[in-house]
Amino acid sequence: MPEIIEVKNLIQVYSDGTKAVKDISFNVQRGEFFGFLGPNGAGKSTTIKILTTLLAKTSGSVTIAGFDVDKEPKEIRKIIGVQSQETVIDVDLTGRENLMLQGHFQQMKHDILRVRVDELLKLMDLQEVADKRARNYSGGMKKRLDLASILVHKPKLLFLDEPTTGLDPQSRTVIWEYLEKLNKEESITMFLTTQYMEEADRLCRNLSIIDNGRIVISGSPKELKQQVGADSIKLSYENGDSKEVTNEKAKKILGEIQGVTNILDSDEGLTVYAKNAGFIIPDIVRAFDKQKIKLTSVNFSSPTLDDIFLKHTGRRIRTEELVQNPKGGIFSRRRR
User: Fold this and answer.
1) pLDDT values of the chain reduced to their tens digit, one per residue, 336 residues
2) Do residue 24 and residue 138 come from a single domain?
3) Does residue 241 sit in the same domain as residue 261?
4) Are 308 and 239 in contact, with CB atoms under 8 Å apart?
């Protein structure tokens, strides 16, 4: 299958000397759902700005559908759609008017545009509110309208920069379903940047994990999780002396338990990897109790993409807690 994105030795250095992207290379196949996974500040948004011709790169080679980002940006813009973290719809216009406006920007013929707008309103389940002002839409509806607006000209490639940030879980799931449908039924290539592990795991056929401007690992979610080769147990506990002292004591205890293959620090305490981890949890609880370390939580799970990130960087991608806006509408984010 031919490649629609080719990135070789990409480097981006800002004027203040910050090296945001550090010699990364990757390819994306036509029709693929590709994930670019990493925390804030990892280099995701910088990379996507270069790929969408919004930012001139420092060095390296980047082609989109065979077009060079430096020499043929106009050709690239004709075949891509870009959805950013923030919606860019005009809330003073109706949903239908927003889509018609985008079509006029793309210089589409009026009759063809009207048919396309009707198709997108139906696809995004916005027919009933099509002629209402977008300011009255819910957060999820605004995101769907925003997504529809970048599909008006039938792009071959969609760049989705954290498209579900700030949405409640139900609205996020709805957006995922639409993206999956577009990828499978219309063969649109998807380039998704995200810090949501579940999002990447569900949607992406292949992905690259980036941290501090460098790609640390690439592959399919299944392949990457198989590399961990063990279940994980996340332990948190009260620090009797200091966090460092308690951690060292806990590591010594865990190192003596049969079946433990690896022990890593985490924000909450420790993450333990072991084959058939569920069977050794009682041994861990008894050993900690004997040494008077009070466990506050024990969580067991099969390998996840978060475990992959932890394995290759020594830390987890910071998670976000969705907090309901008391005025309703889109949710806000709180780091934890």
Assistant:
1) 589 999 999 999 999 999 999 999 999 999 999 999 888 888 998 999 999 999 999 999 999 999 999 999 999 999 999 988 777 899 999 999 999 999 999 889 999 999 999 999 998 889 999 999 999 999 889 989 999 999 999 999 999 988 887 778 888 888 899 899 989 988 999 999 887 888 888 999 999 999 999 999 999 988 888 777 778 888 988 876 677 788 888 999 999 998 888 888 877 788 888 877 778 899 999 999 998 888 999 988 877 787 788 777 777 765 443 344 444 444 444 343
2) yes
3) yes
4) no
**Could you give the count of Cα atoms lying within 13 Å of 327 in the half-sphere of its Cβ?**
4
Question: What tokens does 320 get?
Answer: 């976000």
Q: Is residue 327 part of a domain?
A: no
The answer to whether residue 316 sits within a structural domain is: no
Residues 236, 213 within the same domain? no
Note whether residue 76 is domain-resident: yes
pTM (2 decimals)?
0.74
Cα atoms in the Cβ-side hemisphere of radius 13 Å centred on 192: 31
Q: Show the tokens assigned to 144.
A: 């769907």
Structural domain count, the chain? 2
In this structure, the strands spanning 295-301 and 231-237 are antiparallel
Is residue 45 located within the same domain as residue 181? Answer: yes
